[in-house]
Amino acid sequence: MRCAFALVVLLSLCIAVPAFGQSAPAASTPRCIGLVLGGGGARGAAHIGVLEVLEREHIPVCRISGTSMGSIVGGMYAAGYTPEELDHIVTTLDWSDLFSDNPARLELPMRRKDADYRYLLNFEVGYKNGRIITPAGVVQGQKLLLLLRRLLISTWNVHDFDQLSIPFRAVATDIVAGKPVVFGSGDLALSIRSSMSVPGAFAPTSIDDQLLVDGGLMDNVPIDVARNMGAQQLIVVNVGSPLATKAELSNPVAVLNQMVSALMEEKTQRQLDTLSPDDILITPALGNMSAAEFNRGAEAIAIGNAAAEAALPRLKALSVSPAQWSAFIAQHRVRNFDPGLVAFLKVDSTHTDTAQYVGERLAKDVDKPFDPTKLEAQIGSIYGQGNYQQIDYRLQDDNGNRGLLIIPRDKPWGPVYGKLGFELDDDFAGRSEYLISGEVNATNINKLGAEWRSTLWMGRIGGLASEFYQPFGQGASTYVMPYGLVRNEDFPVFTPDGSKQLAEYRVKRNYLGFETGWSPLPYWRVLASYTRGTDKGDLRIGNPEAFFSEQQQYSLAKVGMDWDSLDDAQFPSKGARVNFSYNMYRPWLGGNQTGDVAQLKADWVPDFGLAETRYHLLLGMWASSALDHDKQMDQFFEAQSFLGGFLNLSGYPERSLHGDQSFLGRAVLYRRTGQMDAIFSTPVYIGASLEAGNTWQSKSQVRFDSLIYAGSMFLGIQTPLGPLFLGYGYAQGGHSSVYLTFGSLLRPSP
Hints:
By secondary structure, the protein is an alpha+beta fold.
């Protein structure tokens, strides 16, 4: 019996030893760690700090789920980006530019730049199917989508997110059905963009007839998604904003925001309650950092790093051996991508009426190397026309040939758009003027991108103008434009020294014309036009001999050149703007005026080459000359130039000096106050100007010693209605005035 017992024990050990030997490798295989990255806007940069610690401690991640900013960080990490690369992207990205749909102003077409000087509010409404429609978001997300498209270009042919270096899921919200949408396949860049469509700020995206907004509304910390992916143990990073205190709930907007935040917090807490003792929750101490403070990315990354360091006692247990980590890195870092040549270009016409126009603008890139940065700039130039909600692109493979699919989407609140404008001038000396303007623009009238724009004025100007703009040719660089105008304008008439108002006239102006031009680059153009018009001055009050009153008929042939490389039309920090025109008045088709008028206006803001500077200097000049004074051009209204008003000989009333010869030179120094890198802020400027100029009734009167010297000090605020200025001006001879005015630092031509 003892021998039998010993034999049984020996056989048992023999069986057990191999079994133990076989189970050892299974025990050393790391568990599948799921990484859950929550939404939180700018606070989500803390996720990068957590990833830095995970990589340093050799903790591999085998599943990732993310919402909003968590989907951006998670999706890019799943695609093979390192934490160091993500850190560089977040801390060097121009976030303020990213949250503006328009390309850099230098790249805008000249026609769009012209609109900057018409004092229109930066808010557009549309008219469609008999009703007025507004945009669904302040930002359409054009630049954000193109950025994601470029950063994730190596995954262009990955449609199953399980085929990424790390399987990944992005969470969005179907705002119509009121339920979460989990993306595990499809277009990675578009899925991530959908996940962070903050309602009201970003326009929703449309995928498979679903209208999608930020996933945080339904699942801000998608723990359930990571579990459904098969993760055995979770590392959860919660960067959600805390609820506001009672003292902070002082206005309806704050209360509404608190209501949404409270609902999101309740859903998040329900997810957190499902965590097991083995799961690790990391909550970075981001304090009062708001979801919009993307300029604090480096700070958020450091806070995330510190939070992960605090969790090291538990995280270290998830570290793997050097060999296992090397295998993970070898798999994770693979992002091979050979762009090759663009073999073909297609334009999706499903959501646009101008597919032909878009195709012609981009056709020259076929059979050239694919360059996503260059393509972004070209798409931005087309988008800058102002007719599109979004222009996207995708790489496609057709029988082994790689090409581009361009996907333009016309604005759904069009194709008829409207804007309002407002101007106010008050010198606090009894004279004030206002001007309300409305602009209606019908776009995409034909396949070549024609526009019909009409403008209505009320106030010191009353009337209507209309123009039909038809681009054509390669790159749509050439155009023809018939136009017409009917309006009345108030013009004050002062004594020659501008000290006393003698009369006020209502000048009736009517004209029809035709213009053609060529703009091969977005910052310059040449043009020629013909105009036939009439002017007539009606005395409203004062001396009837102080101004012209008879009807004046004229025919005008004009040639001109425009250059505009300013980076901003309201408070520029660099660039130049030059307008030159030569106007020839001839008695063609019934006109009764003969003479030539040359006009030049130039503004230059030197670029001092500093990455960030608060100080800017604007140097400007305006000159106009009627070259044939002996032909009574001094009584011809179209030849007159007007000076006076803020920055146009400050201290004098608006348009108090006039003549057919004029000159104005000025230097304006202004300083921006407050936080320079804040994305959502109200810029405030303080500044001063030195000015010299005058008007004369003949060329023989023009003398250097007759220049009038003036200056001003002002406070400028960039409001939603446009720049608002409060200033004080003083001019030689004791002329002074206080100004309250809406408008641009680049005042219209005097």
